[in-house]
Design a protein that fits this description.
Strands 1, 2, 3, 4, 5, 6 and 7 form a seven-stranded parallel beta sheet that branches. Helices cover about 40% and strands about 10% of the residues. It has 13 helices and seven strands. It is α/β, with parallel strands linked by helices.
Amino acid sequence: METPTKETPADALARMLGQDGSPRIVVVHQDDVGMCHGANVAFAALAGKGFITSGSVMVPCPWFREAVDIAAADPSIDLGVHLTLTSEWAQYRWRPLTGNAASTGLVDDDGFMWRRVPMLRERVVPDAAEAEMRAQIETALKAGLDVTHLDTHMGAALSPELVDIFLKLGRDYRLPVLFPRDFGQYAGCLNMGEIDASLYPPRAEALEAQGCPLTDFFGLTPGVPTNEADATYRSMIAGLPPGFGFLAFHCNAPGDIEAIIPPRAQWRIDEFNLFRDAGFLNWFGVQDLKPVGYRAIRDGMRQSGIL
């Protein structure tokens, strides 16, 4: 007598989404929507057009309102909140929605958010960070955005000082949150400072016990020369392991990003060009994986009583 095959977490997610089982389910995500005009142009051109399945908006940034208008014009747009507690670029900066009092630990001497996560972690007052993140979510909701999920800019909201607040926000607003099964793999892609990795498995186990999908793999904009971009992205996608994954890209149309981040602008422009290229889209369409957006995950979790 054959032993029944145990359902994997990816199988459970596929079942919740009403899909046939697949060894690889992936959210293809555009981070930093609303950061600048070019990011919004890219998201409007790419979202739901064959590769990008979801994105998240930086509410404190200058071009947030335009991102909301883009989402309002297309109800199929899948857009969450990219909880933002850092402001990393040299001249292009943003401040907390809740004010720039030094006592919050959220701002540097110039009144802007800290440039790096370790700088934030040294000073942050968790209650102030919670108030700021709630203000960002509430601002998005009041603007009419159908928020699909929560994730975090530069990993800040998943730092040890704030991770429980991040999870609480997901529960309070009935939204799925980006949470990695292997925190070391996620943190290894980012500059978060020293982290006690033992903090995360108990939280991951509790989330999974509740039925919340955890990401099995996390990928990030690779940052390669233009002539290597096509091959690099195809290799990244073809090599994805089994499970549920999240690919965080940073697509940007040309025009403003070149002045904001000159050394990295071309990486973002290359993504914008590649992800609308017919040859690349045709190739992606026949890969053995299931691209999903967070709206379907959110709705499935709510219908199942998970959220």
